Amino acid sequence: MPNPPAGTNPSARPSTDDELLKLVTSFGVAPAAPQEQVETPYFSSTLEVPTGLAAPQNAKLTITVNYSVWFVDRNTLAGRAVRDNVGNAVMRDGSRTLFRLLDWDSRAWPYFKRQFEKAAEFWNNRFRLRTPDEYSGLSYPTLGGAGVPWRPDVDCYLRLTTNAKIPTQLVVYAVRPETFDGGDPNYREFRAITSLHRSHRPAAEMFLPMNLKGDSAHDLQVFAHEIGHVIDANGFRRDHIGSRLGTQGCFEDDNAPVCYNEPPGVPPNIMGIGMGLLPVNADGWQTAIEKHTGVSKFKWEAVVR
Fold this sequence. Notes:
Helices cover 17% and strands 23% of the residues. The protein has helices at 18-23, 108-123, 216-231, 241-244, 283-293; strands at 13-14, 37-39, 44-48, 59-72, 82-83, 89-92, 98-101, 127-130, 140-141, 149-151, 154-161, 170-175, 193-195, 204-209, 301-304. It starts with 12 loop residues before the first strand and ends with a strand. 38% of the residues are buried.
């Protein structure tokens, strides 16, 4: 089996599929690609297959989420907050705790937007899916490989857009909850939540707090965690790390505290309370590639990059 030409992507590899060899008629011409565009209620996905005109490279699978943001305070209730008896905006968090909301200002909302964009970038190009050996739908011949068909793997990307001309798939409600100092026995932290039930709403909803702790790393983890729920919206749904790793009781209640914990020796995970990644976190892309190719997502092995 020949090796890739020097300087090429090492994960693209020769195809040994005899049937594919019969399809190759000229250099630089790829077989018909699988379904290029897939639309789901929660995101769109695009699969780009290499043409073979350049050095061997991987296919690109991009999940795109079109979203809008409401900055909720006493001036913009957005149908999700209410005013109390003295005119302050109040809202319940994911634990049903009632919080007073502070107003947004010219310093707070740009910070929130930067952190949200960083949280999306956390997921971008972090996984690679290994194309099953028996699947040749992504394979292509290359000039550098003397016409030998190459089977690329699939690199996984995430893109967020705010395009008012296409349907919104996610509505983000950004809040500034009033909290007490961490040393106060009455201290509570607004619990973020992402709601994916769509029976009466046209889009998923995410309630994200900018907690007044001066801790950008904390905000980044919370934002990236909630984006992880959206990425997996078409898949397993029980996507906290304990559920992913089979922790007892998490199948019944994915939000139980134990479901945010990893087994001993496993670094804190983004779908728990940390920033680590495991192959199980790639389920959203595995679900998408199944829709594009018709090949079971369980055959696409995920690798953390």
